[in-house]
Design brief:
Distance between the termini: 51 Å
Strand content: 15-25%
Strand order of the largest sheet: 1-2-3-5-4
CATH superfamily: Transferase(Phosphotransferase) domain 1
CATH class: Mainly Alpha
CATH architecture: Orthogonal Bundle
Shape: globular
CATH topology: Transferase(Phosphotransferase), domain 1
Number of helices: 5
Number of domains: 1
Radius of gyration: 17 Å
Length: about 190
């Protein structure tokens, strides 16, 4: 029988609306997302994300701008979902796109180019990015002075239900939602840049 992975404060990377994100204690190239223990508003984002990533896997969507999901793992804080960790070529954890903008780390032209590349990717592969917050996107310096945006959270939908079913089964509905979400993303981006 496999032992539970123990997640301690030292591995905590970030706290979201309903999940904590930890660096995997046995594999620093991965993170584990775990629901809060006493989260009463739980929409079970792990279940939703897992289903959505399985859907994308069946569609053979390349993972150039989203993190790979590896499935579930048993932890001392409950069931966790494993994803690739996004880090720069030098091994440092990539900064959020929001921090890149606020700290003016890259020129407006470089940022705009990355945003356009992300848009092309989402629209080409019909990927739903519904929680469009700028902190759900990391700016990865994958080679010296070469950057790309990687979505780490907010894919698929807000809850499992009829809309989520339609996202997976109706291209027209999905395309409509992608366009709507992208407009909201641009509003947030343009306010900050």
């Amino acid at each position: 029988m496999n032992e539970k992975i123990v997640l301690t404060e030292e591995f905590l990377v970030a706290r979201g609306g309903e999940r904590d994100c930890y660096i995997h204690p046995l594999d620093s190239t991965k993170v584990i997302k775990v629901l809060y223990i006493n989260n009463k508003t739980n929409r079970n984002q792990n279940t939703l994300e897992y289903k959505y990533f399985k859907f994308l896997e069946k569609q053979n969507v390349p993972l150039s701008h989203i993190t790979k999901c590896y499935g579930y793992i048993d932890t001392d804080l409950g069931e966790g979902l494993i994803f690739d960790r996004v880090y720069d070529y030098d091994g440092k954890t990539s900064m959020t796109f929001l921090d890149i903008i606020i700290k003016n780390r890259l020129t407006k032209d470089v940022r705009d180019k990355m945003v356009e590349e992300l848009k092309e990717y989402l629209f080409k592969y019909n990927i739903l990015f519904v929680d469009i917050a700028l902190y759900n996107v990391l700016c990865c310096e994958y080679e010296k002075d070469r950057y790309k945006l990687v979505i780490i959270d907010g894919l698929g939908g807000r809850r499992v239900g009829i809309k989520f079913f339609l996202y997976l089964n109706s291209k027209i509905f999905t395309k409509y939602k992608i366009r709507k979400s992208w407009k909201r993303f641009l509003v947030g981006y343009n306010k900050k840049r």
